[in-house]
Write a structure and sequence with these properties.
This protein is α/β, with parallel strands linked by helices and 327 residues long. 38% of the residues lie in helices and 13% in strands. Strand 7 (242-247), helix 11 and strand 8 (278-281) form a beta-alpha-beta unit. Bound molecules: zinc ion. Zinc ion is lined by residues 52, 54, 99, 283.
Amino acid sequence: MKKNIRPSKLARREFLQAGIGTIGVIASSNYVLGQETKSSDKPKFPGWIDAHSHVWTPDTDKFPLGAWNKKSELKPASFTATELLGIANPLGVDRVVLIQHAPYHGYDNSYVLDCAKRYPGVFSVVAMIDERLPKVAARLKKLKQQGTRGIRIGPTKHADRTLVKDPPKWLEAKGQQALWKAASKLNVAICPLITPEFLPSLDVMCKQFPDVTCVIDHFGRVDVGQKEELKQLTKLARHPNVYVKVSAFYSKGKKAPPHLEVIPMINQVIDAFGPDRLMWGSDCPYQLNNGNTYKDSVALFESRMKGLSKNDREQILRDTAKRVFFD
Ligand SMILES: [Zn+2]
């Protein structure tokens, strides 16, 4: 490194481009040290994968907001990919699945796709697509070519903030049928953000499209203590291609660290799906509010769930998301 270059900026950039932080390597040292490898054989990304985070940029000239938004109302005003990695890398997380943030960007996936392009291998993308418009398959194919591995869907609002016409029948709509069919053909995951009352409608769809990889956000929004709702979620384990994100702890139970009260629910989800169909996600920047932290989110699986085997931990914190969103 040349001495006349200001170190802070360059060091930070190199650190981020490398995609791993020092602590990230230490946290995953078992994985690396467990094998007899030459340094060149070391995995490029030995750390954990965050299967769910959002990002946005104050550069709204290049990446415009939806018409319903004002730049002054972004909260936080900036949460770029670089800022996210600045939090994640020191905690052993070196890859992230970026989830399109419709409240700010609607169907314009350009920022998350741009991040994936600028940090090769570091980010995977779950985008959004307007399934009501024609040529869903062709548009999905294009998104996939640009780096998209999943499509986010929801039963009440479209990404442009218009309301879904008939929420109880949201998946029966022509557009959804076309989208699932195309997703099956193109091997793109469908990622529903749903509340528990919509779990039965998903059950029907997963039966109809057994080849579609379906990744349910945040335990299907089931909260600690909701026995019936949890039953609806675990019932979906009968479909082999259904996965669950064990994520968004700021919204569960006491809504505060150390999140230990969520553990019994996690164990029930592990019993139903197995760790190889579960993936941890932070849901940043939302996990960074009201005393909740990224560290507390990772720590729940990394050190606070004493009953987890090394393999369970590695599946949930890395390997499941790797198979679904990176391989
Ligand atoms: Zn989210």
